[in-house]
Structure formats: structure tokens, C-alpha cells
Amino acid sequence: MKLTIYLITDDKYFKDRDLFETIEKALQGGVTAVQYRFKNKTTREMYEELLKLRELTRKYNADLVVNDRVDLALAVEADGVHVGKEDLPPEAVRKIVGEKMYIGYTANSLEEVKKAQELPVDYIGFGSIYHTSTKENYKYVGLDALKEAVKIAKKPIVCIGGIMPYRVPEVIRAGCRNIATSAGILGFEDVKKAAESFKRAYQETMRMLMLMGKA
Predict the structure, then answer these.
(1) Does the pLDDT value for residue 78 go beyond 80?
(2) By C-alpha distance, which of 27, 29, 31, 24 is closest to 3?
């Protein structure tokens, strides 16, 4: 899994942008994984877009993850699939995909993080760490909960929710090593520059922690 800088797509950021050009710029800037998450497209549209994104992510040695749609993830040979509490249960997803791809699962509380330890998933998406404009109905958990989630989780935590480049050092110091974002990269006009800022903040913070013996 290459979830260090994990970009999640969203309909609102592609109204006046070319999907592939935008994602390629983000990949050039340092994104290590792309989650394809769209709600207002036909299955055929999504399949054709995913085929192109599969080529793009391979070109830049990045992972491709499909949100919710296990069928599409299998059809394009994605690296992973991400499901939430209202999607197909992780146990059913694992029966379908076997070991062909990894499974991500959403948790919005420490209790859910604990329960997720028993599920056949490979990483846990935890948030919202900050207040966010990407999702209307989100649950705010905060930095203190993130610190606790990292301590109790046996599986990798991917933190998400309102994480902008300037907030990257905070979440890393809280113990999170995998950071997901939409607005933190796609919310900027210069997507490549935003991704580079994200990557630079990540690398500089990790370097500092290593020097302090806390990495």
C-alpha cells in the first residue's frame, strides 16, 4: 500500500477541469495513491475513466483505489477498494476480491476503530480530523482522537478530513503516517504545486522527527 499522500477525488472539484490532466499533475507533485470517488456518473463512464486512471497511476508508480464499487475495482485491476458502513460489508468484499487487492474501511470514532481490528480490512480511514467542506454530513473527531486511534489500531490509520498542506506536520506529530485529502490538493488552482507542498511538509516533518528520534 502506498497511502502516504492519498488523494481522494470529488465531483465538486471537476466541474471545470479535465480529470486526467488534473490527476496527472497531482501525481507529478507527489501523490502516492488516488481514490476514485464519484457519485454522479454512470457505471460505463466510471469504468472508462478508471481504465485511463489505471494507466496513469501505473505510469507514476502510484496506487489506484476505487470507492465503494467492488465490481469496478476488479474490472480495472485496481490496487484497492474502500468501503464504508453503508456499503458492502468488508467480509463480503474479501470473499469477492480475495487477496487480489487491499481493503480500506471508514471509522468515525474510537469505538469503530476498535471494531475494525476484527474485520478483514487492511487500513482504516479515520476522521474527520478537522472541519471540512468536502462532505456535508461528516463526523468531527479531532487531533486527540487521532492520537488515540493510532495507539489502539493494529492496522494502518489513514487520517482524513480538512487536512491542508499547513496541517500536515500536526497530523504526523499525532502519529499518523498516511494522509488523505481532497481540498488540500484539489482545492487549489495549481494542483501540482499543492501536491508538492503536501509532500514537502510530509518529508520535512518526518526528517525532523527522525533527528529527534521520534519517527
Answers:
(1) yes
(2) 31
Q: How many domains does the chain divide into?
A: 1
pTM of the model: 0.92
* CATH code where residue 14 lies: 3.20.20.70
| Distances in whole angstroms, Cα of residue 165 to Cα of each of 34, 83, 116 | 17, 26, 28
Domain span holding position 13: 5-211
| Burial of 27 per CB tally in 10 Å (0-12, 13-18, 19+) | buried
Closest CA to 9 of 59, 55, 46: 46
pLDDT digits (tens, 9 = 90+) for 129-143: 887 765 666 678 888
Q: How much of the chain exceeds pLDDT 70, in percent?
A: 96
Rounded mean pLDDT, 90-110:
94
Question: What distance in Å separates the CA atoms of residue 34 and residue 42, rounded to the nearest whole number?
Answer: 20
DSSP 8-state class, residue 156: P
